[in-house]
Design a protein that fits this description.
Shape: globular
CATH topology of the largest domain: Alkaline Phosphatase, subunit A
Oligomer: single chain
Distance between the termini: 36 Å
CATH superfamily of the largest domain: Alkaline Phosphatase, subunit A
Helix content: 25-40%
Largest sheet: 9 strands, mixed
Radius of gyration: 23 Å
Order of helices and strands: HHHEEEHEHHEEHHHHEHEEEEEEEEHEE
Number of helices: 12
CATH class of the largest domain: Alpha Beta
C-alpha cells in the first residue's frame, strides 16, 4: 500500500475509528493512482492502529457470588420482598438506590443502572462464564473472555505490561484467552499492594538476558503448540519484569491521602491498582469482591460487603474523572446473577438469573439514568429486558470493538465476538 494512499485511508477512518462508506471512497478517490492497492488486511490493520491510539480501557468490578439487586441498585422498600433494606435518594432526582451505597448514590449522574438484565444461567460457574464471555460454556469451544477480546483488539502488542489483568482471588470459569491463545490469558494478581511474585530477575540483568538467548536457541526449530505457548509466555514475562513501568504495581508510589481515599480493604487497594494499571497502558482490568452468595443472613452480609465496595468504587469514578480518564475508560459493576425476591427461612436470598442489576459508567455512557424495570414485587421484568448479548454488544460499542468481528477457532470455525443481540437504546451520549 502506498504511503499516500495509506494517509488518505487514515483520514477516512477518522479520529473515532469509524469508517463511513462515503468517507472511505472519498479517501480512495483522493489517493488517485494508488486506488486498488489496499487490501482488507491493510484496512483491518489501520482500524486496529486507530483504536490503539485512542487508548480505550475497561475496568470490571466483579461482584462474585451474585449480588442481590434489592440490596444494591433496585431496592423495593414498599414491598415485603424488600425486607429491611431502605432506599435513599441519589444525586439525580427520582432515582433511588439501596441505603448501603451512599457514596455511589452521590455519583448517580455518572451511572447508568440496568435493572432488567436477564439470563437463563442460575449455576455459579456457568453464569460466571456467560457474564465474562457472552457465551454459555461449551465442551467444544473455549470462548475468550471480553478481557481477552479487548487485549487482542485494543492493546498495543509492543507494551511491556500485561494487556489483561485480574486482581483478587482466583475464581473458576471466568474465562481467559480461550481459542485466542495463552498470550491473552489474564495476568493474575492475587492481592493488590505489592509487586507481583517473581517479578524481578533472580540474577544480574545481563546474565538473565544471556539465559533468555540460550532458551531461544534451544527452542528454535520447534513448532509444537506447547513449545510455542511456552515461548510466548516467557517473552511476555521477561519483557514485563525488565520494564521500568513495573512500578505501576507499587501502591506506595501513591500519596498517603490517595491510599486513604480508597480505604484499607483489599477491594479498595484493587481499585487503586486498577486505576494505576490503566493509567500505565493496561487495557482491561478486573477487580473482584465477594462472596455475595447470600443464601443465609442476607441483610448483615450485604451490608458488610457494600461497606467494602461502595467507597472504593465511588473513589475510582472520581479519580478517573479528575484525571481525564473516565471518558475513555468503561467501568462495569456486575455479578453472575441476582437474588430471589422471597427471603428464605435462613434469612437469605437464593439465585435469580431472570432479573438483576448491572451498572455502567464512563466511555460515552450517559449517566443519570435507569434502564429497564421490574414490578413492585421484583419478581418480573416489566420494561426493556436486556439479555447478555445486548449487554455485550453495548460494551463493545462503548469500547469501539466490532461485535460482529469473526475470530477463527482452532478448527477454523468463524465465531463472532457477540452472537446477535442489539445495542441498548439510549445508553450512550
Amino acid at each position: 500500500m502506498s504511503i499516500e494512499f495509506k494517509h488518505h485511508v487514515e483520514l477516512a477512518v477518522g479520529r473515532h475509528g469509524v469508517i463511513g462508506r462515503r468517507d472511505f471512497f472519498k479517501g480512495i478517490s483522493l489517493a488517485g493512482v494508488a486506488a486498488g492497492t489496499l487490501t482488507w488486511a491493510d484496512l483491518v490493520s489501520l482500524r486496529a492502529n486507530e483504536l490503539r491510539r485512542e487508548g480505550m480501557a475497561c475496568i470490571v468490578l466483579w461482584m462474585q457470588g451474585g449480588p442481590s439487586q434489592f440490596e444494591t441498585f433496585n431496592p423495593k422498600p414498599d414491598h415485603e420482598n424488600g425486607g429491611e433494606t431502605k432506599a435513599i435518594a441519589t444525586s439525580v432526582p427520582g432515582i433511588q438506590v439501596a441505603d448501603r451505597f451512599p457514596r455511589l448514590a452521590r455519583q448517580m449522574d455518572r451511572l447508568a443502572i440496568i435493572r432488567s438484565m436477564t439470563t437463563k444461567e442460575g449455576n455459579h460457574q456457568r453464569a460466571s462464564f456467560l457474564m465474562h464471555t457472552g457465551y454459555s460454556p461449551s465442551a467444544s469451544v473455549a470462548y475468550p473472555a471480553l478481557g481477552a477480546i479487548a487485549a487482542d483488539t485494543l492493546a498495543d502488542a509492543a507494551s511491556d505490561l500485561p494487556a489483561f489483568a485480574r486482581i483478587g482471588p482466583r475464581f473458576r470459569n471466568c474465562g481467559g484467552g480461550g481459542f485466542l491463545g495463552v498470550e491473552f490469558d489474564p495476568f493474575m494478581i492475587p492481592k493488590a499492594g505489592a509487586l507481583p511474585q517473581n517479578a524481578k530477575p533472580a540474577t544480574a540483568v545481563a546474565r538473565y538476558q544471556r539465559r533468555l538467548g540460550l532458551l531461544k536457541r534451544l527452542e528454535s526449530g520447534r513448532s509444537a503448540p506447547h513449545v510455542t505457548d511456552h515461548r510466548k509466555l516467557y517473552q511476555t514475562a521477561s519483557r514485563m519484569i525488565l520494564s521500568p513501568r513495573m512500578k505501576a504495581f507499587d501502591l506506595n508510589q501513591e500519596p498517603a491521602s490517595m491510599r486513604q481515599a480508597y480505604g484499607d480493604s483489599e477491594f479498595g487497594s484493587g481499585c487503586l491498582l486498577a486505576r494505576r494499571l490503566v493509567e500505565s497502558g493496561v487495557t482491561f482490568v478486573e477487580v473482584s469482591a465477594g462472596n455475595w452468595d447470600t443464601h443465609a443472613d442476607n441483610f448483615p452480609r450485604t451490608q458488610a460487603l457494600a461497606d467494602q465496595v461502595d467507597g472504593p468504587a465511588a473513589q475510582l469514578l472520581e479519580d478517573l474523572a479528575n484525571r481525564g480518564m473516565l471518558e475513555r475508560t468503561l467501568v462495569v459493576w456486575m455479578g453472575e446473577f441476582g437474588r430471589t425476591p422471597r427471603i428464605n427461612a435462613r434469612g437469605g436470598r437464593d439465585h435469580l438469573p431472570k432479573a438483576f442489576n448491572v451498572v455502567l459508567a464512563g466511555s460515552n455512557v450517559r449517566g443519570g439514568q435507569v434502564i429497564g424495570a421490574t414490578n413492585d414485587a421484583g419478581t418480573e421484568i416489566v420494561d426493556r429486558p436486556v439479555p447478555v448479548e445486548d449487554l455485550f454488544r453495548s460494551l463493545c460499542m462503548s469500547l469501539k470493538i466490532d461485535p460482529d468481528h469473526e475470530n477463527l477457532s482452532p478448527i477454523g470455525r468463524p465465531i463472532t465476538v457477540v452472537d446477535g443481540g442489539e445495542a441498548i437504546t439510549g445508553l450512550f451520549s
